[in-house]
Amino acid sequence: MSLRTLPLLFLNLGGEMLYILDHRLRAQNIPGDKARKVLNDIISTMFNRKFIEELFKPQELYSKKALRTVYDRLAHASIMRLNQASMDKLYDLMTMAFKYQVLLCPRPKDVLLVTFNHLDAIKGFIQDSPTILHQVDETFRQLTETYGSLSAGEFQLIRQMLLIFFQDLHIRVSIFLKDKVQNSNGRFVLPVSGPVPWGTEVPGLIRMFNHKGEEVRKAEFKHGGSYVAAPKEGSFELYGDRVLKLGTNMYSVNRPVETHMSGASKNAAARTQEYTAPNPLAKEELNLLARLMGGMEIKKPCGPESGFRLNLFTTDEEEEQAALSRPEELSYEVINIQATQDQQRNEELARIMGEFEITDPPSRSASKGDDLLAMMDEL
């Protein structure tokens, strides 16, 4: 088990969330100033210094429900609002995209390059905001410091943890289906062609050595694929050619993205069980979640600002239909964690969660450091 998995999971899922939101903001013709504010507010919240400090502390992965709660609040860190059905779809797209990227990483260490691709793209969203750019660059340096010296074995443990987290998610996504990288049952198709991992040779040759370590014979075999040697290793520097394209914005080409729930009742039942089943580690997870959310700086907003609703579906009718088919048992507005043995921590989390609830309309801060989390309200 690796205690260094959470930062990579959070940052990559967050990067995918920003890709999707940027795509939908443009598709719905949201005015440029409002769209920029939404992305700037969410990115500033996501890379808040105290929040990142808590995130990078060695810790176990959160449950899917706890992590989903964090993203609910992150997505509502600005004037934009999503209803439950759109938030479901957003989270489904995020998780399936990153699952695909983890599966296709040539080397376990390349999950770090995927993360850097996300950070590079995020910096493109905030080129006119030097303060937020500095936050992202600081996170990049912390990633380099934390993961730069890890061994291949430690990265393999991280990759295994990520795959375990995603193993039961098989949601069909239109882009993946059209590109034939996903089957109709929601499982991904792994390629048998393309570049091999950096530092390895193209398969097809067996070398045999004697007891002195001398090569005595060679034999070739048919590997059944179309492999080539990797041209070069991707850069792990602040600026550089990552080479690997996993983690880049697949929504940059304007095309509709839909999720398809094959066997809807079966998937709904499985998801309901996943999010409502009692957690035997609830007390410890409560502590972790309280510390992480406590790292989100909350400032008081001032000045009026009109909010708007974003729809992740093509039409309002599709969104309404998705909401009707959603099991009532699924509720992400409140996280139900039993921790009666730790009353002080329970009260602390209640205080923190209470600070996310606002009754006044969303508003804009007059300073550069716009309040982000004070505008998070219920979906």
Automatic annotation (TrEMBL):
Family annotation (InterPro entries): OSCP1
CC per GO annotation: cytoplasm; plasma membrane
Annotated protein name in UniProt: Organic solute carrier partner 1
Organism of provenance: Sus scrofa
Family matches, as PANTHER family: OXIDORED-NITRO DOMAIN-CONTAINING PROTEIN, PROTEIN OSCP1
